[in-house]
Amino acid sequence: MRSHAIDRRQWLATAAAATAASVVQPLRVTAADEPLPRFPIAACDWSIGRRGQIEALDVARQIGLDGVQVSFGPPGDGNDLRSPQVRQAYADAAAEHGVHVASLAMGVLNSVPYASDERAERWVAECVDVMPQLKQRVVLLAFFGQGDINGKPDAQQEVIRRLKRIAPAAEQAGVVLGIESWFSAEDHVRIIDAVGSSAVQVYYDVANSQKMGYDIYRELRWLGRERICEVHCKENGFLLGAGRVDFVKVRQALDAIDWQGWLVIEGATVAGKSLVECYQHNRRHLREVFGG
Hints:
- This protein is α/β, with parallel strands linked by helices.
- The protein has one domain (22-290): Divalent-metal-dependent TIM barrel enzymes (TIM Barrel, Alpha-Beta Barrel), CATH 3.20.20.150.
- It has 10 helices and 10 strands.
- It has helices at residues 2-20, 56-63, 84-97, 118-130, 153-173, 185-195, 206-211, 216-223, 247-256, 275-290, and strands at 23-24, 36-37, 41-44, 67-71, 100-106, 138-142, 176-180, 200-205, 228-235, 263-267.
- The strands form 2 sheets. An 8-stranded parallel barrel has the order 3-4-5-6-7-8-9-10, surrounded by 6 helices. A two-stranded antiparallel ribbon has the order 1-2.
- Helix 2 links the parallel strand 3 and strand 4.
- Helix 5 (153-173) packs across helix 6.
- It is globular and about 45 Å long.
């Protein structure tokens, strides 16, 4: 037990030094020229209690995060990013608080399924149109709840058909549609290969994979750098570092495929601590493991 702790400390020190030497310049809303770390850390706006609210950027500042994953919802829902005025308000808030918009997310697809609802297909197309104007590269497409297509071959085929229709526009816009679902890595790739576009990738959620019994650390290596657009660092009922996911092994797997990009915290709260306290802990744990 003692020798393992020493090895872990030595590995963390080495990893932090390696991270300090490598930076990434992701697309962002602010005009700041300072480079972000190789692994910038964000949180979902819904996880910090501000779904679709510009105030999420201020909460992220209080926590000490680099960015926020912002919800893209149905037309007229809250701060609708289809509006130039709303986009400008986000840009202004990002500049004011020194917090980036890390990516977008369409959690609305959990209740308005992409596989069967024409509105969902239209909204994804609208999101693709908006993303370059907001200087965003990645949008998460959620496939849970009513939108779950795991084990549903007919629904999967319809999703493939719809993604094929939108993929050329996404490629033209230089944006990525990230599939987050209950799929294994192999099933994700089966969908991606059927679409046949680099604009469709995996939005990898470590807690979802752990819950399904998949080998997170093997899957990350197997998927490789080119198929993973972003990573959700999540736990259900635990703070990061105190639950079922070993983030040191996640880091090692990402290093093995030379991946860099946003780490987005989701969930990972516990009773007895405020949301801000939980997320400050989560941020510190990821910084310890991923450096920066």
